[in-house]
């Protein structure tokens, strides 16, 4: 097949004798006991992709039309042994969700050239090691950006206007007993500091401008083409903001970017919305600041130690919590599926990748 | 304004109450038990020249009749459906409301409700608080908001503000109102059923009048359909609530975000167990900032009336 041409000459596929294939007669047993199980129903000429954990079934069914998969969890061998045994045939890895791709995994895969991640953030992938080994990494690009931005805005309105809390109030039958629900706070006119003005952050900005908010931001570099005020320091941004929305990538530099000093600078009516990664915020300090009224509220879709959420938050009406699902819509998923296919095909065809993560 | 006798119908805002108490001769209607309110009004009828009401408790024909010295009703709301406007016209009683200052909050809430319903935010919040994330690990998909067609009933101040916000989410806008509005690119439908059949999120943002009562009826809900979402930030009686409950329970309507109900503060209990609804206790304008601005407008109108200046926001 055409797309095998320039690359597979020097990196052979798994020897065909080791691949389990459907026998011409479905009743007869497979011809060989195999070391690795590549796609049972696949065409052996389809390019081979290593998975690190099972895919969603709908995802897997669509991808199987284009690729064969190596699935280490189906092998009796320990994972690293399995990887080493199949290393010569592994050039591409599809990393679904937050499954880690660490240096020990990468060390088993000397032929690996491409890691395709299904998330926007790649903090679970050892990027330094990938760079050192010349491995290209792709992420979800901007397929999640609209949904993530919608969710950030939804969270902010929810925290300020107490939507989840007052829905709880109504459902528990308290309205006729207690009367009017306590007042919330107005979104219009709020100064919103966005941390990380990438594809998600800039969509959040566009949406909130329509609500009459003033947009400020912090990112690694200033974006002079934008009219928004830039802050090189997060504390300074917090001091001039009523709201902080965290949308940046989690890296060594951004770990605990929102610390006690930032929260103190944000102040007692301030609101934090985090749709990035849990570890962008010092969670212990955040809980303490919420408890002590150092800040006014929070909307949290991500946590430091998921699925564990600090229980103290459960009793607070000025926080909104969700289980890391800002991007869980059918549209996001079908966009992601197409992007994964396109990235892998581009890789196997020797074309530029569609959503490479810049170094 | 010190001599102005003001009847406040309901404890609607502490700042407003304080200011009225400080600047006028204040009568608190709710402090007398319901059965003796007629006596209360009779006893003070000689002094009460102004009524301050809101969307919960305004001034009906009986109240107005009981107050022969009444000159002005200054409502702490934009909607005036709890005031007998016809009677006010006959008696020459001035009426003011609080337009504009609550437009943004109400529109913000409409968008917040649409996102909350589609993305199931309160449901996720409940799920996490119940500790289920750790035990169950649910990853059900929710529905995207960006790009949904938003249909607005009533393209007045609030409707326009909803449209402007929804446009920032790349939502195509369509609307129904009594007449087509010049100067917008939004698609106009002359009937609510046609609007509902051609949109995915239907927002009720019109005034409540005899004509708009139950403007969202069974036929409209069925046109909106099992994937459609209804957002009501207007008044409860805009929607046929019994039909709404049926449509939601039977799955003929996809979801609803409801801030207002027909018999507030009573909400149909069948809704409490539904996952596809978000229920709010009439908080469209419920922010500290806006309630203060509304209170200042009520006070400003009373002040203008007392000093024979033009009213700030007259309706009659």
UniProtKB/TrEMBL annotation, chain A:
InterPro entries linked: D-isomer_2-hydroxyacid_DH (IPR050223), D-isomer_2_OHA_DH_cat_dom (IPR006139), D-isomer_DH_CS1 (IPR029752), D-isomer_DH_NAD-bd (IPR006140), NAD(P)-bd_dom_sf (IPR036291)
Residues annotated as domain D-isomer specific 2-hydroxyacid dehydrogenase catalytic: 53-357
Recorded GO MF terms: glyoxylate reductase (NADPH) activity; hydroxypyruvate reductase [NAD(P)H] activity; NAD binding
Keyword Disulfide bond: no
Keywords carried by this UniProt record: NAD, NADP, Oxidoreductase
Entry GO CC: cytosol
Pfam families: 2-Hacid_dh, 2-Hacid_dh_C
Top-level lineage group: Eukaryota
Residues in D-isomer specific 2-hydroxyacid dehydrogenase NAD-binding domain copies: 154-326
The UniProt record lists the keyword Iron: no
Family membership: Belongs to the D-isomer specific 2-hydroxyacid dehydrogenase family.
PANTHER family: 2-HYDROXYACID DEHYDROGENASE-RELATED, GLYOXYLATE_HYDROXYPYRUVATE REDUCTASE HPR3
Name this polypeptide is given: Glyoxylate/hydroxypyruvate reductase HPR3-like
Organism: Dioscorea cayennensis subsp. rotundata (White Guinea yam)
Gene this protein is translated from: LOC120279373
Automatic annotation (TrEMBL), chain B:
Keyword vocabulary terms for this entry: NAD, NADP, Oxidoreductase
InterPro entries per record: D-isomer_2-hydroxyacid_DH, D-isomer_2_OHA_DH_cat_dom, D-isomer_DH_CS1, D-isomer_DH_NAD-bd, NAD(P)-bd_dom_sf
Residues annotated as domain D-isomer specific 2-hydroxyacid dehydrogenase catalytic: 13-315
GO cellular component: cytosol
Domain D-isomer specific 2-hydroxyacid dehydrogenase NAD-binding: 111-284
Single GO MF annotation: glyoxylate reductase (NADPH) activity
A Pfam family: 2-Hacid_dh_C
Family per similarity comment: Belongs to the D-isomer specific 2-hydroxyacid dehydrogenase family.
Name the UniProt record assigns to this protein: Glyoxylate/hydroxypyruvate/pyruvate reductase 2KGR-like
